[in-house]
From TrEMBL:
GO cellular component: cytoplasm
Domain THIF-type NAD/FAD binding fold: 318-526
A Pfam family hit: ThiF
InterPro entries: ThiF/MoeB/HesA (IPR045886), ThiF_NAD_FAD-bd (IPR000594), Ubiquitin-activating_enz (IPR035985)
The protein's name: THIF-type NAD/FAD binding fold domain-containing protein
PANTHER family: ADENYLYLTRANSFERASE AND SULFURTRANSFERASE MOCS3, UBIQUITIN-ACTIVATING ENZYME E1
Amino acid sequence: MKWWERWPDRFDHEMRCLSAHGLGPVDTSTAEEMEAGYRSIVIDYPFVDGQPIPVSIKFPPEYPFFMAFAFLDPNMMLLRRHQNPTTGELCLLNAGQSWQPSHLMGDEIITMLPKILKIHEDPHGPYAKEQEVEQGEPLTGYFTKDNGSFLLIEDMEIPEDFSHGTFEASILASDRNGSRYALTKVINALDGQSITASKKLIQSLKGYPIQRGKWRRLEIGLENAPKNERDFSTLAAKIDWHTWHTFERQQRTSKDLLLALFQEEVQQGTFADAWLGIQLRTVFNHSRGKGKKKGGSSNKQGQFVFGARYDTKTRWARSPELQALEDTHVCLVGAGMLGSPIALQLARAGVGRLSIVDPDYVELATIIRYGLGADYAGRAKVEALQDYIRQNYLFVQVDPIQYRLGVPFPGERHNHKKFLAAVEAADLVIDAAAEKNVSYYLNDLLFSLGKPWMTVTTRPGSWGGETWIMQPGGPCWSCLEAHNNDESLPMPNGDADRGLQVGGCSQLTTTGNGFDADIYALNTVRAAIGLLTPDDNGYPSPNWNAMVMNLRGETGDYIGPEFTPYTMPYHPSCDCN
C-alpha cells in the first residue's frame, strides 16, 4: 500500500501547508513515479530579488518516516554551500536529523531555505558557523561513486609549488567492477622533484602493474564541478590537452589516466588536497568484410576515478585504539574453522604482519564453515588467506607457511626453520590448530622463548569453546591439562560425537557450525588485540587468562551466550610452577 493510500489526507495536507506559505505547489507526480511509490511537488520559491525559481520536492516510498528531498536546478541557480552541484539536491541543514513523521515539508522548507540563502551570501562567516553542524562540505562527497573505481591516496603531502607533471600508480584491479589504483609517485614537471608513498605501501604493492599519466593542480569548486560528459571532456583537456586530443583521434585500443589535484573542505573551515581521476579508454573493434580492406570502429569510454584517502590519520580515525597494531607481528598456527576467521579479523583490525602456518588445502565441502568461499577451493589455506588479505588489506604483510608440525620430511614446503623464524619474530602466537600435540609443542617452545601465546578450541558440535592466555612464566598448557585431568576447572559443553569421516577426507573431523566457531574466534581476537596494544590508549587488555564459552546447553539446547572468564592457577605438579 502506498503511503498516500494508507494516510489519504497526508499528501493534501502537504499541499495545503505549502499553499499557506505562498509557495504555489503543483502536483507533478507521474504515473510511473506513483507506481513505484513516489510523489512529486514543484513550488515557486522567491530566491533573488523576489523572483520565483522552481524547487522540486520528491517524496520517497517510506514517507513520512523519512523526510522528502528538495531539488534546485543548478543551471538556474547554484548556491555556494548546501547544494549538490550535479543533482541540485538541497541540504536542509540538520532537518533530516530532527525530522519526525508528524512534521510537514512545507514547514521545513520555509524554515531552512532562508537560512541556506543567508549562508550562501557569506559561506564561511559567523552566521554559517552558527547554523551549520560542525562538519566540512567536501566536493567529492557530491560525486556519485557508483562505478567501482577509486584511486588510493596514502600519506603524500604534495608541496604547494608542485603545479603539474607525471605520476605513477599501481593497478590493483581493472575489471567489469571498475578500475582501482594506488598512487605511489607524483613528479613535478618544473624541477623534477618527486613525492612517493611510504615504503610499506610500495612493498605491499610489489608485483602490481604500473599506470603512468599526467596530473595538474586545478581550481575546482561547486561552480565548476564536472556534471556531465561535456564537463568531463573539459576537465580532461585542462589536465593535459595532448593526452585528451590523442584520445579523441586515436584508432587503437588504449587506456590512459589523468589526475586533477584540488583543494576541498574536509572539516568546517579546513581545506586539504583531494584527487579526481579521469580514465580514458578506447576499445578498437577490428572488422574485415569480404573483398574489403581491413577496418574497424572505435568505442571511446570515459569515467571518473575518485580519490580515496587512505592516509594514517584517516585510516585510524574510526578505530584509534587499534593504531598500535600496525607495528605488531602475530604468528597464527592453524587456518581452519577457527584460524581462518582469526586471520581475517586480525587483518581487518590492522595487524602489521601476520604469519600463517597450516599444511592443508581449502576443500570445497568445508566452505560451510571456512572463512573464504568456493573461489579459493583447491588452494593451500595459507596462500588463499594471503591472496585475500593482500587484495583487501594493503598494509598487512602475510607470510604463508604451508607446514605440518611433527613430520620428518625436510624441504621448502615443510620448512621447520621458516616456522621457527616466524615464531621467534612474533609478538604473539595464537594456536588455532585444535591438536593437543601442537599445543604441547608450542607450550614448550614458547615457554623457553619467554613469549606470550594463546590457544582456542571448540567442542564437538561447536556447543562450547575455550580461549586460554599463556604468559611467560606460566601458568602454562601443561597446567591446564593437569587441571583438566583433575576436573578442577570449568569446561565448556560439547556433543557426545567422537568424530566422523567425510567422503574424500583422509582424517576424522567433528561436527560444528561456522557461525558458532566465529564467536569463539572473535573472542580470541579481542583478547589478542588487548594484549598487543598499549594499556594507556589501546584496546582494553583481558583481566583473565581463561575463558569458557557456551552457546548450547548440556543437552544441546539453545542458550544465550555464556562467557565465563576466570584465572587459571598454576598446577602443583607442573614444572613451570
